[in-house]
Each structure stands twice: as structure tokens, then as C-alpha cells.
Amino acid sequence: MPRLSTDWGMWEVTSATTVPATDEWLPKAACRGPESALFFPPAWSERRDERGEREARAKAICESCNVRRPCLEFAVAINEQHGIWGGLNESERRHLLASSAARQVQAPAPMHERRQRAAV
Ligand code: SF4
User: Fold this and answer.
1) Is the shortest distance between the CB of 84 and ligand 1 below 6 Å?
2) Residue 26: pLDDT over 90
3) Is 78 helix (H, G, I), strand (E, B) or coil?
4) I need a labelling partner for 47 at 20 to 30 A (CA). Which of 14, 41, 72, 109 fits?
5) Whose CA is nearest to atom 3 of ligand 1?
6) Residues whose CB is less than 8 angstroms from the CB of residue 54 and which lie 6 or more positions away in sequence, other chains included
7) Are 103 and 12 in contact (CB under 8 A)?
8) Each residue's pLDDT tens digit, 80-106
9) pTM across the whole model
């Protein structure tokens, strides 16, 4: 199951077997309450500018949330397809996963491993 290994601004998806338990971080979520509707699209059709404004308001709440990291890890781990989680919308999460997967494929082995392989 994918998991984020990151410092803020340096997101990397790695393998892990655990999903952050919601009872540990969800009670501390800054999005609980009346503004929770900002985090998911409405039942009616939303114009692009409306969506952008709604998402910007939601992401501003995420910026000050103390559980942003486990929230995003959870969304990635369960492959959540909708809404803002951890400050990223669904398309940004897909991009994060894709770019992390690409880095893992392209990343060269550490120098000590390449030397070991060459010595064999
Ligand atoms: S990071 Fe955003 S979506 Fe996640 S719990 Fe916090 S406010 Fe809610």
C-alpha cells in the first residue's frame, strides 16, 4: 500500500503496510464542522471558477491543519478518488503518485550498491 514519506514540500510515495488510523487524526481535523462541504464537489454541476474558489478555500484550511500529513497519507493509502485531502485534490494526488512512481523507476541505485554489483 502506498504511503507518503515526506518533509513538507518534498513528497515521496513509498511502500508501507499501514494506513493512518482515522481515530488518531480525524478528531483533530481542521475541516470538521460547517466548512466540511468545501472539501468535496457539490451535488450540482460546478463551474470551473466556482470549483477553483471552493478548492482554494479548502486548501487554505488544510494549510493550518495539524494532521495534514496523516490525512494525505490516508487518502493515498485508500486511493481516495474524490475531494481535498491533506491539501491536495484528486488530480494532484494522482500526479503525486505518478511522479513518485516515475522517480522510483528512474532513481539510480546508491553508489555503494553499484560498487557491490560491479565487484561481483
Ligand atoms: S489536511 Fe485538510 S482535509 Fe485533511 S484533515 Fe486537515 S483540513 Fe481536513
Assistant:
1) yes
2) yes
3) coil
4) 72
5) 85
6) 38, 41, 46
7) yes
8) 999 999 999 999 999 988 887 666 656
9) 0.75
Tell me how far apart the alpha carbons of residues 61 and 70 are, in angstroms, rounded to a whole number. 15
**Rounded to whole angstroms, how far apart are CA atoms 63 and 54?**
15
Separation CA 92–CA 67 (nearest Å):
18
Residue 85 Cα to ligand 1 midpoint, Å, equals: 6
Cβ-Cβ contacts under 8 Å for 71 (sequence gap 6 or more): 20, 25, 29, 62, 65, 85, 86
Q: What CA–CA distance (Å, rounded) separates 55 from 4?
A: 22
C-alpha cell at 1: 500500500
Atom of ligand 1 at shortest range from CA of 61? 7
Grid cell locating 26: 480525524
Grid cell digits, residue 90 = 484528486
User: What is the chain's mean pLDDT, rounded?
Assistant: 82
Joined together, the cell numbers standing for residue 86 give: 491533506
| Grid cell in block for residue 9 | 514540500
